[in-house]
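agent> step 3/5: call structure_predict on target 'Acetate kinase' (Mesoterricola sediminis).
agent> reason: downstream docking stage needs a structural representation; sequence fetched in step 2, passing through unchanged.
tool.input:
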Amino acid sequence: MLILVLNAGSSSLKFNLVDMSEEKTLADGIAERIGLSEGFIRWTIQGEKGRLELDMANHKVALSAIMDQLRDTVLPPGAEVDAVGHRVAHGGPNFGDSEVITPAVLKEIEDLAFYAPLHNPPAASGIRTAQEIFPGVPQVAVFDTAFHHSMPDYAYTYGLPYELCQKLGLRRYGFHGTSHKYVAEKTAELLGRPFDACKIIVCHLGNGSSITAVHNGRSVDTSMGLTPLEGVVMGTRSGNLDPGVLTTVMEQEQLDAAGLSALLNKKSGLLGISGVSSDCREVEEAMGKNRRARLAHEVLCYGVLKYVGAYAAAMNGVDAIVFTAGIGENSADLRAWVCDRLTYLGVKLDAEANKVRSKSGRFISTPDSRLPVAVIPTNEELMIAREAQRLTANA
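tool.output (status=ok):
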């Protein structure tokens, strides 16, 4: 079964073609600058990299060009994809699982733009495009928020008037659900224990970061909230704030809602604190000579440390801590900063193992560490492909 996984942005389209017989990625890449000048498509097809300069007026032109390339290279003659899986950021209060896309499902995805105005509209556009390109091929929406629907009400409820929360759907939804589930499952495999008998803290740390407590295979708490703004500081997002900060800034700087949103989402986080970059690698490189860069890094590390401690308490213990995503997989400095302050949980970091980069999951704690710590590369695309296969295999 061939599954095409799509992740549509406002001016981009990421793609992965997965052969589910071996769960092998045959091709992946991205079309960028859609609707703009100097557009291009980059890809890796069976290990070979390529690039095509192409101005793309819309996502349909981009997807058509991607499929032309796949048909010329990796797709057998006359073969087409069997299903398309779409990453959708926000599933709102009603989607606690992936869904085969119907007109009603697509409409609700569009209506949920209220919660995710930067993410859901492009996803809906990508779905409509794929429906045009692949008429009759089943399409599946996989929601970032779905895995977190298992949270208990006391973990997702905000301290606002209850009626207002019910009216507007205000609650903690969480994000990166496909990543958290995939990495937690792989952690259980690494431990040699059943997934539904583990307490795992997953630290998905990238340009957007979230931390999740996974108890017996279910998300019971997560750091992101109604939107991807809540939690630890991120590349350009603020993370947790005193709500009074928001009213103060709006009044003193005379910002409207759009201006405040831009400040919190695009000008804050590592970039806002350091003044150097939103890229953690560049922040770490500058730490030796730039006090603000060091401060930005430590604010992030300290935020991760506090969530780990909180979630160990929330689950009444923890069987493993795992780091994943761009920063989590690659920043040995961040992992060391956090782990060196978790000795009370029995963590003993293997300094040499922590420095080794690997494409497969590995422990970075010592064999006698009472609490195992691991680094596991995430694979959200494979999880989306698995969901598409699960819902369409008998279609």
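agent> step 4/5: record observation. Residues 2-143 form a domain with the Nucleotidyltransferase; domain 5 fold (CATH 3.30.420.40).
agent> proceeding.
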